[in-house]
């Protein structure tokens, strides 16, 4: 059993937890994820590692309610435990594999949408600890949906918050802020890392492709085992089929077939689930990434 | 008295009834039937059947004990050579192994070794008869990667010799393919697999699930930092293959691994579990092995009309004869000498059909099987909503790519010797599907045994 040491609400339907999982904590790197299973009858649910403390043996996860299992996770309290907590899975972010000298010369832009701020955080933090300060855009639907602002502010070079409805920070979608930084501020980025709902990543990639900025995205397709055994997580990347759980989850965003990936993630959308998502349109499903424009 | 030319028939669930449930198909012998069947064994001096068994069970000996009604000692004979007899009795391809060599088979049917083995093993499970373990540990620590048949056997054998064994398993359940691949209706999970694993635990073996070697820790770290003196890799052949035809990314195309994992490991067939499965109304399973039969029979039980699409003819079907026979009885349709060209999808990428071509058998290829060639102009379409690809698997590179000095061959299999499982890296042994590619339970167990022997010799001489 893997005990929850802390459980905290960050925003509507978004919760943060610290979980005791020493093996994962001792080996994980930014960009990787875990698979959790609540109890005997639970699903295997992939969640990105948002932070970790090797000494305390803890891993931080941030969960957004989108369906039955994520709802169950967020109802768990400190003191309760997950039956299973496996990881770290997937590959570490490419950035941390890079040569430090060349990395230090790079100008890096992170674009986080909604709960995507969680997987972006450990990467920004890691860079900060290694003397690289990256620009970070965090997008949310509305003021109450902005998460991890304080934590992110401490490790980001410049932090830009934007909300769809303009209730906080800049107004409009994350892509507007990207345009602002590049076109108006004249910033030249060597690489962009975009993490959030697929629809957001798709639009960021369309824009950065035009701008000629290489872009990395973190894909979150449906998964079962997370070890490369089932093939459920397969994606079309360029002319290759890749398994997100072992080849990813990060890929060259300009090569990913987002339309296909979005259709594949609908596979288990039951009629009932669809109804529930319709009801809560925007708040949960689209994660308030500031880039709604289609059914993800 | 048994008919000397024929096996004592085994009771099975009625095909019509069982095609709608996940209960075990074959009900097995009772003691009377087993004792009856035992009288057919000639107790040969030069028992060919033993040669056919990859772990060399002393078959005539255990059969004699059954004949005498001493089931407990029959079990002790079997457990000298096999750690999972209740599993092997059910899933071994006996017709090409022990029973394939039986003298009785020359004229008439061979002795029903598998069914008798199953009876003895089930009896032992029911009566809680334990294999004999080591008296005390010898203080040497060995790590085993993977809790499939190879890993379990290696762990059991080493524990019997007094080693302190820890098995690391990536998934949340123990058993490898026995829990995630082979369905409940062929191999009950609680009644058989879990209990066999309990026995291995009873020998003092420790299990750590949720540890992915190569990610959660590495082989080198097990050896250098965690105090293990040797490692056995029994990580199986997990990566599914696809055909590379158009439409394969469509919604409703699954690997057999995914379909079976959802149903077996995650129990998606049972509504009280959270994991969903898109069962399909009309399903095509592409392939002809055991895995294809299991996927087809699972889909049938989930309510679908099921077609098995296989490019050669019935004679070449690689599945066990019993599975093909059971599948047919349950109403699975075999579209033989047929090969997929394209999967057809609608505007939402959902599968709506499959375009196939007829095949005929041409010249024999290197494997001696006649090679299927396309019949020109014979393409046609079948309407359906689900396609399950069952084309085989290849070993997962997670371990080989993170272990210094561990050699693999061009099929990504770990290179290890057959006699003792030795790899190119000192203190590291391997066996089972990770070495051979997808094979059988009993061969994996044989490799686990060989690995245990190799590790024991290595550590004794260190
Ligand atoms: C590598 C990886 C990392 C992830 N990291 C996080 C994370 O840090 N925090 C977090 O909250 N979630 C994360 N997810 C997504 C999370 O796993 C899913 O939201 C969860 O599995 C949904 O389960 P459920 O039973 O609650 O919803 P379900 O009932 O399974 O699904 C509800 C609906 O949501 C949709 N859906 C399913 N999966 C996703 C998905 N991945 N993205 C968007 N919509 C989906 C489906 O269409 C479905 O109909 C990650 C996924 C992956 C693969
Ligand atoms: C559907 C199906 C039906 C079959 N039917 C039959 C049959 O009827 N008769 C028969 O004889 N054979 C059958 N087989 C084949 C047989 O099951 C396999 O040959 C056998 O299980 C191989 O055993 P193994 O121990 O080598 O590997 P596996 O059983 O595959 O076990 C490997 C284990 O290692 C774990 N693992 C992998 N990587 C790691 C890692 N990095 N870290 C930790 N753990 C890891 C896996 O999760 C798995 O649990 C069937 C196979 C399938 C898939
Ligand atoms: S283990 Fe398999 S091959 Fe050996 S005797 Fe038993 S059924 Fe036959
Ligand atoms: S070969 Fe057949 S008859 Fe002879 S000992 Fe073996 S099982 Fe009995
Ligand atoms: S989740 Fe099964 S292969 Fe990636």
From TrEMBL, chain A:
Any Gene Ontology biological process: pyrimidine nucleotide biosynthetic process
Bound cofactor: record note: Binds 1 FAD per subunit.
UniProt-listed InterPro entries: Cyt_c3_hydrogenase_gsu, Dihydroorotate_DH_Fe-S-bd, FAD-bd_FR_type, FNR_nucleotide-bd, PyrK_electron_transfer, Riboflavin_synthase-like_b-brl
Listed cofactors: FAD; [2Fe-2S] cluster
Signal peptide segment: none
UniProt-annotated binding residues for [2Fe-2S] cluster: 230, 233, 245
MF annotations from Gene Ontology: 2 iron, 2 sulfur cluster binding; flavin adenine dinucleotide binding; metal ion binding; oxidoreductase activity
Pfam families the record matches: DHODB_Fe-S_bind
Domain FAD-binding FR-type: 1-95
Keywords in alphabetical order: 2Fe-2S, FAD, Flavoprotein, Iron, Iron-sulfur, Metal-binding
Positions with a binding annotation for FAD: 62-64
Annotated protein name in UniProt: Ferredoxin--NADP+ reductase
From TrEMBL, chain B:
Domain 4Fe-4S ferredoxin-type: 31-65
One term of GO molecular function: iron-sulfur cluster binding
InterPro entries cross-referenced by the UniProt entry: 4Fe4S_Fe-S-bd (IPR017896), DPD_II (IPR028261), FAD/NAD-bd_sf (IPR036188), FAD/NAD-binding_dom (IPR023753), Helical_ferredxn (IPR009051), SudA-like (IPR006004)
Domain of life: Bacteria
PANTHER family per the UniProt record, alphabetical: GLUTAMATE SYNTHASE [NADPH] SMALL CHAIN (PTHR42783), GLUTAMATE SYNTHASE [NADPH] SMALL CHAIN-RELATED (PTHR42783:SF3)
Protein name: Glutamate synthase (NADPH/NADH) small chain
Lineage, top ranks: Bacteria, Bacillati, Bacillota, Clostridia, Lachnospirales
């Amino acid at each position: 059993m893997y005990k929850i040491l802390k459980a905290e609400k960050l925003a509507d339907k978004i919760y943060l937890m610290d979980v005791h999982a020493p093996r994962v904590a001792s080996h994980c790197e930014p960009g990787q994820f875990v698979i959790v299973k609540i109890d005997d009858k639970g699903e295997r649910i992939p969640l990105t590692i948002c932070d970790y403390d090797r000494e305390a043996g803890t891993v931080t996860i941030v969960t957004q309610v989108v369906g039955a299992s994520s709802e169950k996770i967020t109802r768990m309290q400190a003191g309760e435990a997950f039956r299973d907590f496996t990881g770290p899975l997937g590959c570490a972010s490419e950035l941390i594999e890079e040569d430090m000298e060349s990395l230090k010369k790079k100008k890096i832009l992170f674009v986080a949408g909604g709960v995507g701020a969680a997987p972006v955080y450990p990467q920004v933090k890691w860079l900060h600890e290694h003397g690289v300060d990256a620009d970070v855009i965090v997008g949310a639907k509305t003021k109450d949906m902005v998460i991890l602002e304080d934590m992110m502010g401490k490790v980001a070079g410049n932090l830009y918050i934007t909300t769809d409805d303009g209730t906080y920070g800049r107004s409009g979608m994350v892509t507007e802020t990207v345009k602002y930084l590049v076109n108006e501020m004249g910033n030249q980025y060597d690489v962009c890392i975009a993490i959030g709902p697929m629809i957001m990543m798709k639009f960021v990639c369309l824009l950065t492709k035009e701008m000629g900025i290489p872009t990395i995205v973190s894909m979150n397709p449906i998964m079962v085992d997370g070890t490369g055994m089932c093939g459920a997580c397969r994606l079309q990347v360029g002319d290759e089929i890749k398994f997100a759980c072992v080849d990813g989850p990060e890929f060259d965003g300009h090569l990913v077939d987002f339309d296909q990936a979005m259709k594949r993630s609908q596979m288990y959308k039951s009629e009932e689930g669809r109804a529930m998502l319709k009801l809560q349109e925007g708040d949960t499903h689209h994660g308030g990434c500031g880039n709604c424009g289609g059914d993800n | 008295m048994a008919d000397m030319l024929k096996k004592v028939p085994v009771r099975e669930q009625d095909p019509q009834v069982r095609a709608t449930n996940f209960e075990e198909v074959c009900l097995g012998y009772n003691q009377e039937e087993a004792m009856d069947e035992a009288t057919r064994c000639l107790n040969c001096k030069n028992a060919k059947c033993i040669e056919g068994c990859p772990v060399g069970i002393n078959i005539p000996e255990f059969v004699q004990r059954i004949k005498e009604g001493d089931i407990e000692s029959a079990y002790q004979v079997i457990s000298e050579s096999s750690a999972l007899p209740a599993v092997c009795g059910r899933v071994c391809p006996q017709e090409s192994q022990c029973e394939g060599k039986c003298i009785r088979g020359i004229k008439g049917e061979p002795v029903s070794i598998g069914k008798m083995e199953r009876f003895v093993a089930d009896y032992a499970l029911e009566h809680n008869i334990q294999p004999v373990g080591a008296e005390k540990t010898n203080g040497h620590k060995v790590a085993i990667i993977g809790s499939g048949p190879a890993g379990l056997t290696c762990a059991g054998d080493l524990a019997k010799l007094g080693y302190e064994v820890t098995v690391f398993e990536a998934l949340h359940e123990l058993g490898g393919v026995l829990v995630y691949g082979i369905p409940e209706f062929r191999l009950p999970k609680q009644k058989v697999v879990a209990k066999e694993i309990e026995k291995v635990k009873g020998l003092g073996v420790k299990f750590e699930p949720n540890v992915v070697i190569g990610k959660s820790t590495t082989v080198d770290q097990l050896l250098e930092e965690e105090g293990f003196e040797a490692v056995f890799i029994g990580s199986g052949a997990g990566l599914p293959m696809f055909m590379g035809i158009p439409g394969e990314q469509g919604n409703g195309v699954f690997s057999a691994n995914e379909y079976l994992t959802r149903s077996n490991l995650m129990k998606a067939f049972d509504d009280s579990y959270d994991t969903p499965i898109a069962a399909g109304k009309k399903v095509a399973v592409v392939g002809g092995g055991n895995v294809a039969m299991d996927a087809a029979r699972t889909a049938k039980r989930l309510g679908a009309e099921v077609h098995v699409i296989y490019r050669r003819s019935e004679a070449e079907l690689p599945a066990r004869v019993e599975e093909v026979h059971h599948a047919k009885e349950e109403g699975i349709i075999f579209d033989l000498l047929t090969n997929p060209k394209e999967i057809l999808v609608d505007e939402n990428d959902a599968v709506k059909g499959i375009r196939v071509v007829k095949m005929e058998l041409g010249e024999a290829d290197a494997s001696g099987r006649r090679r299927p060639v396309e019949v020109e102009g014979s393409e046609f379409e079948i309407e359906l909503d689900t396609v399950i690809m069952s084309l085989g698997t290849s070993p997962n590179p997670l371990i080989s790519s993170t272990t210094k000095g561990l050699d693999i061959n061009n099929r990504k299999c770990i290179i290890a010797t057959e006699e003792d499982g030795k790899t190119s890296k000192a203190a590291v042994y391997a066996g089972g599907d990770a070495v051979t590619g997808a094979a059988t339970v009993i061969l994996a167990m044989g490799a686990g045994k060989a690995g245990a022997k190799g590790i024991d010799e290595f550590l004794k001489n260190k």
